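Good morning,

Attaching, inline, the backbone tokens for the sequence recovery test we're adding to the shared suite. The designed sequence is right after.
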């Protein structure tokens, strides 16, 4: 199994506490957040990872180099920021098997889930895109994902309070997912691809009910500092 981890964002909301590092390099005790993420992938059998880098990408590359903890790492360098969608398309050039599904993860979220089970479900349904969803008590920060008959049918705007399912930041995609669409080199995966083409993409949900955290804001970053080392014991 292979994965693309999106690490090229600017992390503006976290800049007040992590001033001189890209967000995935935010320290969690003795190693960066991204290291915890990669070690979790390794535990689930993912040993080949592509990192699309732009903002402070040299700091990510200097730390992880071409191999980390038995994980082979390649870098898809962006001369200009490509957005999440453009970053995925660019990173897919580094994926060796063009007919095998590829995991795509947000580099600022950590989710415990059964990657093998998600992979098997994806293959069984014949989906072009499977999205990990997590049920939480208040969706206002993320926006809700609405499902029906084991299909994702709608995304609601951020700000709607109350419990529900959210996008947990882990996707499984077919490498040819983007080939039938006319897309610019720079675009948002969610806002400019997934949302407007929801019906034709027909994404499938995979429900994950274990630990989830998004370090995009200082409060949750502080919580991750306490939580993640304990999860690895």
């Amino acid at each position: 199994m292979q994965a693309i981890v999106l690490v090229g964002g600017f992390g503006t909301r976290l800049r007040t506490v992590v001033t001189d590092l890209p967000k995935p390099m935010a320290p969690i005790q003795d190693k960066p957040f991204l290291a915890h993420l990669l070690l979790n992938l390794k535990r689930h059998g993912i040993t080949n990872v592509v990192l699309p880098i732009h903002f402070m990408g040299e700091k990510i590359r200097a730390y992880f180099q071409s191999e980390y903890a038995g994980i082979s790492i390649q870098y898809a360098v962006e001369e200009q920021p490509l957005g999440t969608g453009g970053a995925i398309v660019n990173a897919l050039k580094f994926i060796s098997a063009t007919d095998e599904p590829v995991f795509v993860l947000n580099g600022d979220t950590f989710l415990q889930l059964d990657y093998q089970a998600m992979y098997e479900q994806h293959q069984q349904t014949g989906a072009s895109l499977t999205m990990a969803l997590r049920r939480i008590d208040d969706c206002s920060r993320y926006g809700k994902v609405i499902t029906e008959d084991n299909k994702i049918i709608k995304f609601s705007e951020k700000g709607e309070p109350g419990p529900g399912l959210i996008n947990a930041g882990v996707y499984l995609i077919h490498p040819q997912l983007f080939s039938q669409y006319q897309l610019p080199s720079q675009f948002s995966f969610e806002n400019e691809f997934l949302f407007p083409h929801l019906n034709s993409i027909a994404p499938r949900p995979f429900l994950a009910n274990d630990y989830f955290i998004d370090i995009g804001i200082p409060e949750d970053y502080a919580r991750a500092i306490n939580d993640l080392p304990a999860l690895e014991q």
